[in-house]
Amino acid sequence: MVASPPSSNPAALARQADLDAPAFSPLYQQIKTLIVRSLQAAEWKPGEAIPSEIELASRFKVSQGTVRKAIDELATENLLVRRQGKGTFVATHAEQNVQFRFLRLTPDGGDAAGAQRRFIDCRRLRAPSDIARALNLKSGDTVVQVRRVLSFRGSPVVLDDIWLPGQLFKGLTAEKLSEYRGPMYGLFETEFGVRMIRAEEKIRAVAADEAAAQLLGIAMGAPLLSVERLSLTYDDKPVELRRGLYNTAAHHYRNELS
């Protein structure tokens, strides 16, 4: 558990050994950092309610308004979820508005339909050098490689190659992946205690090679969108590298900028 700061003075809060925020940061940002530390330490698990604003204000010896502003930012970042009349809860990838927030593929016409998953492979191997660098692993460390196809309305659209640190995902098998009915990140969260907080992406246009063409049911050389996504957990620790090939013949990649 994170120790409670003894004062509402920003400089005093910043002097706490477990507080990384600089002394000039706003007080609510410092409280936000402390709440994130409690989330990281699993003081409150995904799906559980956190203490009320009044309780947190008392714990951190700040005003309720300061706590509310910190919680507002964490809710915007999908780390917390407010439920009217019930309180504030730790977000989980089982939440409808959270589970597919990293998948930005949208059909050109009609509503987005749920994806059907087909797992092709799940194996443990020594990390190739580029994968080890991306995941901050040592050369020779074990990784889990998962290959799957996502289909929409029966048509294959996405070919994913997913790389995970082997130490964090002991026991992950193709059977476990296939049997889990929720989103993959929900499995990572509940079974392995790994929560994806944010992601970075690189996007480029490529031509389908023979293997991708066969799995996606398209002609070799057909245009595809290559999306490389690095997902990070608390403290910006990389925990997944995903290289996806998207068939955008009937879909487009949609993002919101602000």
Descriptive report:
It is a single chain. This protein is α+β, with helices and mostly antiparallel strands. The protein folds into 2 domains: 10-90, Winged helix-like DNA-binding domain superfamily/Winged helix DNA-binding domain (Arc Repressor Mutant, subunit A, Orthogonal Bundle), CATH 1.10.10.10; 105-253, Chorismate lyase (3-Layer(aba) Sandwich), CATH 3.40.1410. The chain is built from 8 helices and 10 strands. The chain has helices at residues 10-14, 27-40, 53-60, 64-76, 129-134, 174-179, 184-192, 210-216, and strands at residues 80-83, 87-90, 105-107, 115-126, 142-152, 155-165, 198-207, 223-233, 237-246, 251-253. It has a 6-stranded antiparallel beta sheet. A two-stranded antiparallel ribbon has the order 1-2. The protein is globular, with a radius of gyration of 21 Å.
Provide a concise account of the structure shown.
It is built from eight helices and ten strands. By secondary structure, it is of the alpha+beta class.
Overview features:
2 domains, 10 strands, 258 residues, disordered N terminus, two-stranded antiparallel ribbon, 8 helices, Arc Repressor Mutant, subunit A, 31% strand, Chorismate lyase, alpha+beta, six-stranded antiparallel beta sheet
Percent of residues in beta strands: 25-35%
Spans with pLDDT under 50 lasting ≥5 residues?
1-22
Number of strands: 10
Number of DSSP helical runs: 8
CATH class term of the largest domain: Alpha Beta
- Give the CATH architecture of the largest domain: 3-Layer(aba) Sandwich
Q: Characterize the main sheet.
A: 6 strands, antiparallel
Give the class from helix and strand content and strand pairing. Answer: alpha+beta
Task: Give the CA-based shape.
Answer: globular
- CATH topological fold name of the largest domain: Chorismate lyase
